[in-house]
Amino acid sequence: MGKKEHWGSRVGLVLAMAGNAVGLGNFLRFPMQAVQNGGGAFIIPYLVCFLLMGIPLLWIEWSIGRFGGRHGDHSTPFMFERIGNNRFWKYIGAFGIFTNIAVASYYCYIESWTLSYAYHSLIQTFSGLSQLEVSQFFVTYVDVLASTTGIPFEAIIFYVLCLLLNTYILSRGLEKGIELTAKIGMPILIAFGIFLAIRGWTLGAGGATAGCTDCDAFAGFNFLWNPNFTSLYDPKVWVAAAGQIFFTLSIGMGTIHCYAAYVRSHDDIALSAMSAGWMNGFVEVVLGAAVIIPISVGYLGLDWVKENAGFSMGFQTMPYLFSQWGATLGTIGGFMWFGLLFFAGITSSLAMGSPWVAFMKDEFKWSQNKSSWTFGLVVLIMGIPTVLFFKNGVFDEYDYWAGTFSLVIFAIAEVILFGWVFGIEKGWKEITDGSDMKVPTIYKFVIKYITPLLLLFVFLGNLFTPKGNDWFKQFGSLFSGNGWEFDKNAVVKQIFHIGESIIWFNNGVPTPMFYVDATRVLLTMLFAFICVLIYIATVRRAKNQIAEKG
Amino acid sequence: MTTEAIIMVVCVNIVFLVVPGYFFWKILTTPQKPEDPNND
What we know:
The complex is a heterodimer of chains A (550) and B (40).
Chain A (H helix, E strand, L loop, with lengths): L9 H12 L2 H5 L1 H7 L6 H28 L5 H9 L4 H5 L1 H28 L8 H12 L11 H18 L2 H30 L13 H9 L9 H14 L6 H6 L9 H18 L4 H9 L1 H7 L4 H4 L1 H6 L3 H38 L3 H21 L5 H28 L2 H9 L9 H22 L7 H9 L11 H6 L8 E2 L2 E2 L1 H38 L1
Helix pairs in contact in A: 1-10, 1-14, 1-19, 4-5, 4-12, 4-14, 4-21, 4-23, 7-9, 7-19, 7-20, 7-21, 7-26, 9-10, 9-19, 9-20, 10-15, 10-19, 11-15, 12-23, 15-16, 19-20, 21-23, 21-26
Chain B lengths: L2 H27 L11
């Protein structure tokens, strides 16, 4: 039997894990969540959820991963089966491969935007463009048939390029591929982030144009950090904080399990998990919060940002702001911003490729190369619809089901598996085995009772989201006998198309509902495909066992 | 910026600089355990 594959160094492992967690959401999602949910006060539920849900789940996932790796399992299906001691669990573990392929399919598309925008920043495409023209550039870019600067099918070209890069790095293996990329990418990301954050803190009213009375970066910081403590009584704020913690740490995906499976059998996981988790927090809270909102307010004013705050600001606004810094500094600033987003993206998408690669290597004895390139192929097949039909809502559908809902389901399953099926005593032994820090014993109780309850809270919050996210109003309506009105994002409303007529074609032309339902069928087929692979792997394992005994 | 916003941003930034810094420093300064030939 060959020597087991392991991380080259502990710093490499922590940087790769932090890189897995640090993503585009740290810079684009967190600031928006904060301004929409109580400003500075948002950090209170954010910290509470980090301590009671984030950290326990990190420890659970690292423990399951190292436990699996010790027994030769590097992806969640057979880790779950082993830890749950029941065949049924491996099909829950299928989520740990499914989610990654589905998320990588659309995530690589966003990643390719950052690559393309970094290129356009370097060749100064945005120089001299108005805010409206920069915004229009994005609209043209995502229209695959249109061209921004003469490159035909630019969105597809950059998507394929990005996927090829991911696949190539994966094919180089754990130490020479993923670990090396994290060791290079994370310091660059942090350096770029510090540069932009310093610019945010020192901009002040220096970017104000004539006539703009509220163009002041400090007004942006004030907008972001001024605490509205009454917001803490609103359940919406707590659901948002729990959701942010969930997605920012990349928990519920299966990537942490996979990376942790390559930790040596009795090496520390408790301290490494804490280090990676808090490093993600540093990038999000210290760097992420100091860039997009303050700089945007500094140039465009508080009123403009209040009206336009959203994920797209990163692409539709920032290039214009950098162009205001002058030719040289603007080029550097733009390249650093999109370079930073690119490194944040690629260190996450590489993690998404690892579970498939590990599964194919473990179960089908495929080589690193073959496993990596087939991952690229499956992602390409699944991802092309998100590129071609971006405007038809395919992208959003992937994000909703794979990037949001599946994570919560998977996390609920694993917390029950770890705390109740495997047993908290055995689980605790796993967490503390080889630990280089004293793990507070209170977490035994938290893992068994508090974390599952919090997850249930997030799950129900997603399942029954009230109209306009107004929980007080809908509870009032429910108790006065007027029923519960769902938000358009509520899972029950999404699944059953509540309040909508099911029409797939209109005069022979597919309707938006057709694209939505077709995407769901595609995602279901992907999940079924992975379950079939797991079944085949089970049969192969059984045959191998018989052969070994014989 | 309001006083409350300044207090908030200073405290939060200190927490998210000091705690990650402490854990990363511990990672850098804690020697790695030798390989276990039976399991690794």
